[in-house]
Structures are given as C-alpha cells and as structure tokens.
Write a structure and sequence with these properties.
The structure holds 2 protein chains of 2 kinds. Chain A is an alpha+beta fold. In chain A, 38% of the residues lie in helices and 20% in strands. In chain A, the strands form 3 sheets. Chain A has a 3-stranded antiparallel sheet with strand order 3-4-5. A two-stranded antiparallel ribbon of chain A has the order 1-2. The longest helix of chain B has 18 residues. By secondary structure, chain B is of the alpha/beta class. In chain B, helix 1 packs across helix 5 and helix 7 runs parallel beside helix 8. The chains are: A alpha+beta, B alpha/beta. At the A-B interface, helix 1, helix 2, strand 6 and helix 3 of A face helix 1, strand 3, strand 4 and helix 5 of B.
C-alpha cells in the first residue's frame, strides 16, 4: 500500500499508526514535499480483515510475540498460558495484547523509547507482564503523564 | 485526473504486507527444521475416527522410541489432547509456546469423566490443541467484531494453524502428526503452509458413503501435490467385548476400494470397540513397521 500526493506527484511517507481501542485503525501519512498529512481510517471490519492475516499496516514496529494472533483473537481460558520468560530465561517482560495496542498509539518516533522505559520499569519491579494497568502505575511513578 | 499507480511509484511500500506474510511462512519453515516428517491424518468425512487413529498411531510410534508430536488442527472440535491426557497451562519462554506432554493430565478431566487412553503415556509424546486454550465445554469463539464473522473466520483459522506450527517449540521430532478436521480443503491449506509435508494418511470407515467422501479428499490431496501414504480403515467390524469375535459393522469395503484406486497401501484395519481406553492392538509391530516404511521414517537410533 502506497499513498501518493497527486498535487506534488510525491509518495507520502508513513508517520504513525493509531489503534483507538474501538476496533478501528488509523494510519497517518505525510507528503514530504508540501507537508500535507492525511489519515487512513479503517472501519472495524477492515481492521479485522487485516488483523486476521497477522500483519501490520505501516510495517511491524514491535517484535512478534509467540502466538500473537491466537492470544489476541481467541476467547480462551485466562490461565491457558504460563509465561516463564522473565524469571527463567531472559529479563524481558511480556506485553499483553492490550498493552501492545496502547503502545501502538504512541507516536512512532518515540515508541521505541517509551517501550524501553516501561520494560525497564517492569524489570526493576519484578513485573513479568506489562498490562495497561502496569503502564498507568509506571506512568505515575515515573512522572510520565501523557506517554 | 492523471496520477501514477502502485508500480509506477518506485518508493518503498513500508507496510510490506507481502513480506510480512513471507516472514510468517519462513517462521513455519524455521520451526519445522527440527522435525523429520510432517504427516497429515485426514478424511473427507467426519466421524470416521481420525483423532482416535492419530492418537493411536502417535502412541504406537512413541512406544517404539520415536519422538512424536501431535498437532490437533481441528480447532472447533478438538479431541486429541483429551485422548492423550495432555493438559496445560502452556509454558511460554524465549523458544516459544511449549507443547503439552501426554499423560500430564487434562485439567477438567475429572469433571467431565471423558476417558483418555488409560495407559502409561510416554511423556516424550507432545501435543498441541486448541483444547488447551479453551475452558472445558466452551466453543471456539473469536473476539469482536461479532458480525459478518464468516468473512474472516477461515482466515483466522488458517492464521491460528500457522501459529500452532511456527510458535510451538516442537523441538527435535521424528514425526509430527497433524490431525486435520473433516473436509477436503484443509489439507490444501496445510500443504501451502508446510511445503515439506511428507504426506497424508487417509482414514475411512468401510461404508460407500465414506469411500466417496474420502475419495474426494484423496483427489484433493493429489491436486495439492501431497503424497498419499496409505489408508487406514477404522470401524472395520465390531469387536464383541465378551468373546472378542469381530462382526461386520458397516456394509462396504472402502479401504480396499480406495487403496486399489489410488495404488497406495492399506496400512491397517481397526475394529470398533466400545471403549477407547486401550490403544488399538492392531497397531502391532508389523503394522507399525509397514507405516514406518511407507513414510520412510528412519529408526530412532539413526536420528
């Protein structure tokens, strides 16, 4: 998928992706010549169709988690999985689908830094799984309101 | 209005959806590098005992020291995990999701009373099934949007099967048996996900209805470029629990007809028994040797 600024005959560049949490999806593109920005707004069905393929419009910005599609789409038992990653193998906390969705809403140019901050916070506090609630607590603790 | 189209704009497609799909396929290939043989167990018809045959075959191979995994690809009606008494929770670490081990115990088995194979089950036999994800008795449901699900459900199911293949830490296996749901299209999906598929074993019952249905599935397999390894005729007679005599259960000889038509071996005939608490004794050394030969499985010591 490419976006073309017809007036400038220039390919627009991907700026950021937003997942507002209502089943829809948005992606912003900007013309490098005239600086005009446009947004691609997908309805829930279009969002679901793309999500069903396990792909990300605008490209992947986060490393794929094991069974990401299954865990984010199947309504299963809460205790189906037991994450032993942080304690026994690496110091890297796991992100829940909801937390990852929230992270996707962070502007792309700072997303990596924000992810690192939350990951380090989780590691320092022995938190195995980053949820939206953990993000809220960390944001308050670290004085990061707005991130 | 005049403007350039996709191929006329030379710049990068940042989404690279095709590349992302390609990367998914590569993950499957990478994961299955440690699996010697991927074998589908299929039938065009439901209710012929595919899962029973798959579980029995897996058990028979594991008892002969083969390292065997079973993937239950029937997402909506999973049964293999229960038959092999495999339970969760599923452990996740840097390697991926670890499969459940046979005999580890279904968590809700006591509540349902559904029997598993009551045998000492080799823990080297590993299992993955959607049954391990769902609450007992709960149907497979997908998250919102809940309308028009028919449009994208099959895409999601194929995606789930892909993740079952690529994200489960199968480890070193001699054989991964895939218990396919009924229908002739699922094998084609699997063949696209796993081009290195060793082949498929078709399961039928003796009836003419089953023969016709399995015949279609076998033709579909050939169309998908999948090698047919042989046929197993299940419910091939009824064994009396009292005297052990085997009487006819269905009219027809689908096993013989299909093997003659497709030029593949009849790997086994398994009679119906009232209890599935024992693995089929027909899967004895000779039969297993024939199956091993048909899939060119090297001896465990050679792996």
């Amino acid at each position: 998928m490419k976006f073309l600024c017809i007036e400038c005959d220039a390919q627009m560049q991907f700026e950021e992706r937003q997942v507002p949490g209502d089943g829809t999806f948005a992606a912003a593109f900007r013309c490098p010549t005239c600086n005009r920005a446009i947004a691609l707004l997908a309805n829930p069905m279009e969002t679901q169709l793309v999500g069903s393929l396990g792909v990300k419009i605008g490209g992947r910005t986060l490393e794929e988690e094991p069974m990401e599609l299954v865990r984010s789409t199947v309504i299963g038992r809460d205790d189906a999985f037991e994450d032993i990653q942080p304690a026994q193998t690496t110091n890297r906390p796991r992100w829940t689908a909801e937390a990852r969705e929230r992270l996707e809403r962070v502007p792309g140019f700072v997303r990596g830094m924000v992810k690192k901050i939350y990951s380090e916070y989780a590691a320092e506090h022995g938190i195995a799984e980053i949820t939206p609630e953990v993000m809220d607590v960390a944001r308050t603790d670290l004085g990061l309101e707005g991130m | 209005m005049s403007f350039r189209t996709y191929n006329e704009v030379a710049g990068e497609d940042r989404s690279q959806l095709g590349e992302q799909v390609g990367a998914q396929r590569q993950r499957v290939r990478d994961r299955l590098r440690t699996v010697k043989h991927v074998i589908a167990v299929m039938s065009g018809k439901g209710g012929v005992g595919k899962s029973y045959v798959t579980a029995g075959l897996a058990l028979a191979l594991a008892e002969r020291d083969y390292r065997v995994g079973v993937l239950d690809a029937d997402l909506s009606s999973p049964t293999v995990a229960r038959m092999l008494d495999a339970g969760g929770p599923l452990r996740i670490d840097g390697e991926g999701v670890h499969p459940a081990r046979a005999g580890s115990g279904m968590r809700d088995a006591a509540a349902t009373g559904v029997p598993a194979f009551r045998l000492p089950l080799p823990s080297s036999l590993v299992v993955f099934s959607s049954d391990l994800l769902l609450a007992d008795g709960a149907p497979l449901k997908w998250k919102e949007p809940g309308t028009e699900q028919f449009i994208w459900r099959s895409v999601l199911e194929t995606g789930a099967l892909r993740e079952f293949l690529s994200d489960v830490a199968w480890g070193e296996l001699d054989a991964l048996l895939i218990d396919l749901p009924p229908g002739s299209d699922k094998l084609a999906d699997l063949a696209q996900l796993v081009p290195e598929l060793t082949g498929a074993i078709a399961v039928t019952i003796p009836s003419e209805e089953s023969r016709r249905s399995v015949e279609r599935a076998m033709r579909s397999a050939i169309s998908a470029g999948v090698k047919l390894l042989g046929v197993i005729e299940n419910m091939s007679g009824y064994e009396c629990a009292g005297c052990g005599r085997i009487d006819r259960l269905f009219e027809g000889n689908a096993g013989d007809s299909l093997t003659a038509e497709f030029g593949v071996p009849l790997l086994a005939r398994l009679p119906f028994r009232a209890s599935v608490s024992l693995r089929p004794p027909e899967l004895d050394d000779a039969i297993i040797a024939a199956i091993i030969s048909s899939i060119a499985l090297p001896s465990p010591s050679a792996v």
